[in-house]
Amino acid sequence: MKVGILTGGGDCPGLNAVIRAVVRKGIFHYNDEFLGFLEGWRGVVEDKTQALDLQAVAGILPRGGTILRTSRTNPAKREDGLNRCLETLQRHGIDALVAIGGDDTMSVALKLYDLKVPVIGVPKTIDNDLSGTDFCFGFDTAVSAATDAIDRVHTTAEAHNRVMVVEVMGRDSGWIALYSGIAGGADVILIPERPFDIDEVADTIRKRHARGRYFSIVVAAEGAKFSSEVDTQHGSAIVQDLGKDEFGHVRLGGIGAVLAREIERRTGFESRAVVLGHIQRGGSPTAFDRVLATRYGIGAIDMVHRGEFGCMVALRGNNIVSVPLAEAINRTRLVDQDLVNVALALREKVGRQAKPAETVESAR
Ligand code: F6P
Fold first, then answer.
1. Alpha-carbon torsion 131, 134, 137, 140, what sign?
2. Residues with CB under 6 A from ligand 1
3. Around Cβ 131, how many Cβ atoms within 10 Å?
4. Taking the model in full, what pTM does it have?
């Protein structure tokens, strides 16, 4: 078979490991031929390709980024974009397409599947917010980077008696904040799922100081929201830019600096913010992500040969399975309550907690 591969959306460590696994198993076991489409869906719309053979995938397992490059191109927003995709795929005689990406990439894959394109999805995002699968590759690497940063911030916070706010990625869900916050022993963890009360955060920090801990670490997901007096369940996230990408997303960022300012204003304790940003998305994948990405790649090419199109390879428990693309994109996967409870179990109670679930805190 002639199989096309593309990587779409924000990059993450492990994309190359998937490409390598798909190509190696496809060539060694199925006698397949491969064509890479460059820069996500842009490569399909504009017919930008690269040959993918054993030589092209040699040595890429530990490399972050993607040899196919990526973009946030949405063919449905380009003039005649979906039809141009169909023409490109036909021109190259593509029998199956493997689309590696997050919910945006999967939503385009589903549109093309509805137009009879034989497509398979592979779930990628450091945010780990794609439903249908227990874990996306890239998440573990991002958590490791964030945990390492929190450890480093701890020592300088303690030396200076400061409050350090660490802003991590996580647009709609707080997986990175919760995992790295628990792993790094953060004192306050703020996630998009639960708008927080800033006075309660300040009280927690004051209480720590009162019992002789003169520094505090706050981990906040970029999408964390202040609760509002009007509607405590739905505050608004801090944005860097109101412009939207082709999938309608604004650019988030800045919650860390706002939090540091508001905490210092309320407590009088010197506070600083650190934004981890794309450091979480770069670099070499962890062993866990390399193995998961490789399993996904092998699962995807096996699905191609079983004809399971319109589906995404997924991890359920420790098994590789296939799920309908529609299931993967029908909702955002929010953090597990179990994990929230782990963080809650470690926290010291403060008097002003409006609702136990609003702020997730733990104590190192
Ligand atoms: O979707 C993953 C993600 O890392 C989000 O957490 C973040 O909002 C976004 O990508 C930022 O991506 P970029 O800077 O590439 O637009």
1. positive
2. 10, 102, 125-127, 169-171, 222, 252, 281
3. 16
4. 0.94
